[in-house]
Write a structure and sequence with these properties.
By secondary structure, this protein is an alpha+beta fold. Helix content is 27%, strand content 30%. It has seven helices and 13 strands. The chain has helices at residues 3-16, 23-26, 32-49, 63-69, 119-125, 153-158, 206-219, and strands at residues 53-59, 75-80, 84-86, 89-91, 100-109, 126-136, 163-168, 184-189, 192-198, 229-234, 239-240, 246-250, 256-261. Strands 1, 2, 3, 5, 6, 7, 10 and 11 form an eight-stranded mixed β-sheet that branches. The chain has a five-stranded mixed β-sheet with strand order 4-13-12-8-9, with no helix packed on it. Helix 1 (3-16) crosses helix 3 (32-49). The chain is globular and about 50 Å long.
């Protein structure tokens, strides 16, 4: 297995709007470290294309998702400037391969987080929090058409944690003014509520997602920088976003977001 070659292949698949085969099927020994090595190569390839890092995403934070995948830890990926959409934006048809939507709380940092940190340290380093939607996509087949084999968590991690887009809501809040574990959202597609959830679905408290990420990054000599956006993890199941669909996320007093996908 050559992480650099596989990372370049995944970055090209994202750029070209196509999918590659399931890596864990071709490389049965693929593990967590190998998956993150491929993700690092994806990041390097995107930067070579001219993309600029803007933050991090945390995924697989709910107990239900972890149990479904047979893991006990979240995963993470890197955000880039070409992933950002404003609330109310129209996503062009063909921009993504098989997009899905998740609702979560975004943290925008006011100071660097350079190593392991506790909950108070995360809050002290946060400039503001905001409602957000994450757009997931997959540059790896979800299921192999010949064998029926499905992706594993290592495939998702290698594919930049299925990261594709972010819609950051316009509302900004001091993180100390809300009990973030009690902040929730109702996500509607085409006027029908599809999913609801609370921030507590993220490790019991979305702040703890950043505590986890700080520890993981410090083990690899990486940091979270001031000004970066950190997606703390979804508290709903992903909802398919076919062409022509409209999404509205009502976070109550925390804010609202909308995004449309062109038909």
């Amino acid at each position: 297995m050559n992480p650099a070659e596989l990372g370049a292949e995944l970055a090209a698949a994202e750029r070209d709007g196509c999918q590659i085969g399931i890596l864990s099927q071709s490389y049965p020994d693929l593990d967590m470290d190998g998956a993150y090595a491929i993700q690092d190569a994806v990041v390097a390839a995107k930067e070579a294309y001219g993309a600029r890092r803007t933050g991090w995403k945390i995924g697989l934070t709910s107990r239900a998702m972890q149990e479904a995948l047979g893991i006990t830890t979240p995963d993470s990926g890197v955000l880039f400037d070409d992933m950002h959409f404003e609330s109310g934006a129209l996503v062009p048809r063909g921009r993504f391969i098989a997009p899905r939507i998740e609702a979560e709380i975004a943290f925008v940092l006011g100071a660097d987080i350079t190593g392991p940190v506790d909950r108070a340290g995360v809050l002290a380093s946060t400039a503001y929090v905001a409602p957000s939607l994450e757009i997931l996509d997959t540059r790896i087949l979800r299921q192999d058409p010949a064998t029926g084999a499905t992706r594993k968590v290592f495939d998702t991690i290698a594919d930049n944690a299925a990261n594709a887009g972010i819609v950051l809501g316009p509302a900004r809040h001091d993180p100390g003014t809300f009990d973030l574990s009690r902040v929730g959202a109702a996500l509607s597609r085409d006027g029908v509520v599809e999913e609801t959830g609370l921030g507590a679905g993220v490790l019991g408290d979305p702040v703890l997602g950043l505590v986890w990420l700080a520890e993981r990054l410090s083990a690899y000599g990486q940091v979270m920088r001031a000004g970066e956006v950190i997606l703390s993890g979804s508290f709903i199941r992903p909802v398919e976003a076919p062409p022509g669909s409209r999404f509205d996320a009502d976070f109550g007093d925390f804010g609202r977001i909308a995004v449309d996908f062109a038909a």
